[in-house]
Structure formats: structure tokens, C-alpha cells
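>> received
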Amino acid sequence: MKPNEQQRIFEEWLAQHKGLLFKVVRAYAFNSHDQDDLFQEMTTQVWNSVPRYRGDSAVSTWIYRVAFYSAIGWSKKEKRHRDKHQEIQREDRLLSQRSNLENPQLEWLYEQISQLDEIDRSLTLLMLDGFSYREIGKTMGLSQNYVGVKLNRIKKRLTEHSKKKDKHGI
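>> returned
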């Protein structure tokens, strides 16, 4: 593939699917510096993946795969880095964000999603973007039945947390 063709495709993909990348970034990185780093990592991986795209799946599915695997790899690298250094308290991050919340329910949802393990987080984001269980399974390499069971458990847990939040006014 010629570099100018790769550049054209990359720019087209980025223009059409930037929102998808931002959703994955928000689910895996929790401060602006980390979000910038992860977004850069994901776009680099998308750029590198352009020549390997064969059209076997939708472009959005391909980009999700690249983004999720990039985010998972980045998260593991960051965890190793944090383990070697003192971690900033999670409460400090939450307190600093409270002043600029645009949508408290959305922020609460992203906070809950961030606490899920990597697979559950990925499944939830794909579901929120309207992918079918079949499409999610294909993207994640899981059976459609497994996806359904996992997502129903996640929904139940989020509903319970939401009821507790509402009951206690948190």
C-alpha cells in the first residue's frame, strides 16, 4: 500500500470513528494526560493497522478491536509503571472532576464502567454503541451466548449500584 493511500484511509477512518476512540479512551484512562497518551497510542495502532485491513469485518469493528487491544496493552504498561511509583488517590481525581461535570449521570456511568475488568468494560462499551451480541462476540472473540450472559450480569450490577446511589443520594 502506498503511503498516500494509507494516509487517506487513516484520515477517513479517524474522521468517521473518532468518537468511538474517545469512548474507549474514557473507559481506560482517567486524567487528561493519560487520555492524550492513550489516544495517541490508539491512533498510531490504527495507522499501523490500515495495510492489514482486509474488509472481512466492518471498519468500525476493526477499529474497535485495534482500540481495545491498544487500551488493554496501554493499561497493563501503565499499571506496571504505577506499581513502581506512588499512585495518586482515586478520591482526589473524583473531587477535582466534580466541579466541571456536564452530565452527572453520564459521569457516574463512566465511573462505574471504569471499575469493571477489561473484558466487561469492552463488552459494555460495545453494547452502549449499539452493537448486537453477535457483533460484540465476533469483535471480542466470544460466543454470542457468553456475551448475552455477561452483559445481563453487568446491567443487573449497574442497576443495583444505581438504586443504592439514588437511595443514599450519592
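>> Residues 3-28 form the longest helix (26 residues).
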